[in-house]
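Why does this matter for the project? Reviewers at the last site visit asked to see concrete outputs rather than summary tables. In response, this paragraph embeds two records directly. Each consists of the residue sequence and, immediately after it, the corresponding structure tokens. Nothing has been edited or filtered.
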Amino acid sequence: MVHICDHPIVFKIIIYLNNTSYEINLHTSALFCLDNKTNKTTYNFSIEKNMEVKQEVLVIGEILYAKKFYEELKGKYIIKVFDSTKKEFLVEATAKYENVAAILLANGADRFIDKFDNEVLDSLSPAINVIIVIGDASKLVDVKAATDNGVFVADTSLSSIKGSTKDELEKLELEVLNNLDFALITGVPKDPVNKIDEVSVIAADKAINYLNERGEIDLDVSDIQISLS
């Protein structure tokens, strides 16, 4: 085995999957190793599991029936509850909820914030990319404004709520909470009411612009494609 590189350098890549970060270390000494017998270059790398990173969720309104599963989600994610006024939300949205990844508009959310319109959506942190609604999203969220802000929106049909029994309402809340969990894992909720392609492009541009403005990154990602299969 011949080492062409005498001064190894480690390239570190961190990926996030299922609320856990994984650190991949690529060693240049391995990248430039040549096996004399096979005449092939060998590639060695190590993967280290880092500490669990919990995502943050902002909940507006109440979960009335599926409380057991809601408690389970509290152990999996950092749940923040907002129960004040729209005016206060606009003041503290970016700072207090800077790391929030998703918003759940639960039962009675309209009592606190009448509607997620342009004004509210523009005040959100760029980290937020999903709004899940119990009920009809069009009554609580300006879907076009959400799309323009790179935010996915998913809801439930109001017709399935009216006249439902307690068991049916619990099942409905479970479906919503499961969709929230799914969106936090995959980045996209099931059956969003806005178009996935449109939101994805805007969300990607928003993330890059945000990082560039903060001086944390300066790169051209036009020809970079990353996919998980």
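We now turn to the second protein, recorded in exactly the same manner.
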Amino acid sequence: MYSVFLAGYDLKTPDNPDSEDPKKKYGIQKNIELVQVKVIKIALRKGSKYDNLAKNYGDYLKKLQAEKNLNNYIKILTVKMFFKKKAYTERLENYHKRYKDNDLYSNLKKLYKLYYQIARKENRKRSDEEIE
């Protein structure tokens, strides 16, 4: 099985802030990686016009796989990318204009939807109980 976690990484360690529900977080992380791989493969199949896209997403994938604290890295990344809903819709509109290929655009849309879900969860208002 293909995993986004480094060898020896234990999801249930006490210093893992997401250990209370590791399967849910792991599922999103795994999906992010799988969709990035799909985007890279599609871009490479399309030819030299898409080489830069494939290289950039390959670099993103390497950073994701090398990150020691994967949960925090993804949270920080998504909050920076999508600090407001308008940023999400603008990014998708730009990709739709640039990549008219339905397969490539649909996978980019899936990827950024996963990122946006995490960002929304992180940016939500917290209850008094959560703060304490």
